[in-house]
Amino acid sequence: MAMLKHIAVSLDDIFSWCRKNNIGIAHACRTYYRNVGNLLEMQDQLGIQVLTVYLLSDSVDKSAEDYLVFCNLMADFFGELQRSPSIAGRNVKISVFGKWYTLPSKAIESIKSMLEQTKGNERLFLNLCVNYDGQEEIADAFKLIAKQVELGKLDPEMVTREFIRENLYSSYFPPPEAILVYGERRISGLLLWDSVNSKIAFADKSFMEFEEKDLEKI
């Protein structure tokens, strides 16, 4: 059987996991980001052309100290990612979906640097969803379309499903054929517009327990 071209992975809430297990966020993030790195290694090993990973929801409490710790460690991880042979040596282009520009400055700068460094790569594609919300993605698409209508550049009759999709964050990529969900058995809203016909696989465990066979199973 041929490998799926696009797999999306929705990670569970690490903040809730820490509270449930009485573990500090800094300690947990070491495992969390190590698992993310292993997930990216699997993209190359399995030949997955497009991998989309839901790292951070836009609904988290941004005033909490844990959020700042998470973002600082995320910035460190992105810095390591840029120097990693798994990105540079394997020609991986990284995109970031969501309102990442509202992150703390250290994280913003690390993302900008990562996007700039990988913009010319074209063998594999890694999409990271940060400060992301699937409904907001659709709302933002409609705002862009409404602005074009307001300026007289677009006839409302021209607004089709295909045209809406062209204005999504993920418009450059094929819809995911499968979505792997960690944590609770619920739909996170990841790539909400494009997930209509996606197969949903529930890992039935936290991403903190990630194993390589998780991706192989789907």
Structural class: alpha/beta
The low-confidence parts are none
| CATH C-level class | Alpha Beta
Mean of residue pLDDT? 92
Number of distinct beta strands: 6
Describe how the helices and strands are arranged:
Elements: E1 6-10, H1 14-21, H2 25-46, E2 50-57, H3 65-83, H4 85-88, E3 92-97, H5 105-118, E4 124-132, H6 134-150, H7 161-165, E5 178-181, E6 199-202, H8 213-217
Parallel strand pairs: 1-2, 1-5, 2-4, 3-4, 5-6
Helix pairs in contact: 2-3, 3-5
Describe this structure in words.
- The chain is α/β, with parallel strands linked by helices and 218 residues long.
- The chain has a single domain (6-133, 178-217), classed as Undecaprenyl pyrophosphate synthetase.
- The chain contains eight helices and six strands; from the N terminus they run E-H-H-E-H-H-E-H-E-H-H-E-E-H.
- The chain has helices spanning 14-21, 25-46, 65-83, 85-88, 105-118, 134-150, 161-165, 213-217; strands at residues 6-10, 50-57, 92-97, 124-132, 178-181, 199-202.
- A six-stranded parallel sheet has the order 3-4-2-1-5-6, with helices on both faces.
- The protein is globular.
- The N and C termini lie close together (11 Å).
List keywords for this structure.
218 residues, alpha/beta, Undecaprenyl pyrophosphate synthetase, 6-stranded parallel beta sheet, 8 helices, 6 strands, 43% helix, globular
Can you summarize this structure?
The protein has 218 residues and is of the alpha/beta class. The protein is built from 8 helices and 6 strands.
